[in-house]
Design goal:
The chain is an all-beta fold and about 120 residues long. It contains no helices and 11 strands.
């Protein structure tokens, strides 16, 4: 079992920045892939950025140049630094972890609201 707890959401103005954090606990050594997803009202959940346990990252086009995902193994934390935020970034952001047995775990989500 892996447990994920997100924090760091809030309300910012256009152009502002936020850092989301995802605290990992449980069978952390089994995790192969972690990612940040988001879901806006009326839309499907979408991948924002992913990171392998070796630190290799992948960002979707919508976040390239603005968002940075990072992994801190010492703190058991995955973070998402978000800069130059836009109103269309408004969504609930979720942390996800996939283990070596392909089990998928989700956090409870954290709301990000960007006002124009």
């Amino acid at each position: 079992q892996v447990h994920l707890v997100e924090s760091g959401g809030g309300m910012v103005q256009t152009g502002g920045s936020l850092t989301l954090s995802c605290a990992l606990s449980g069978d952390i050594s089994s995790i192969n892939l972690m990612g940040w997803y988001r879901q806006a009202p009326g839309k499907q959940r979408e991948l924002v950025a992913g990171i392998l346990s070796d630190g290799t990252t992948n960002r979707q086009d919508s976040s390239k140049g603005r968002f940075t995902i990072s992994l801190d193994n010492a703190k058991n934390m995955v973070s998402l630094q978000m800069n130059s935020l836009k109103p269309e970034d408004t969504a609930v952001y979720y942390c996800n972890a996939i283990t070596d047995t392909l089990a998928s775990y989700w956090g409870q989500g954290t709301q990000v609201t960007v006002s124009s």
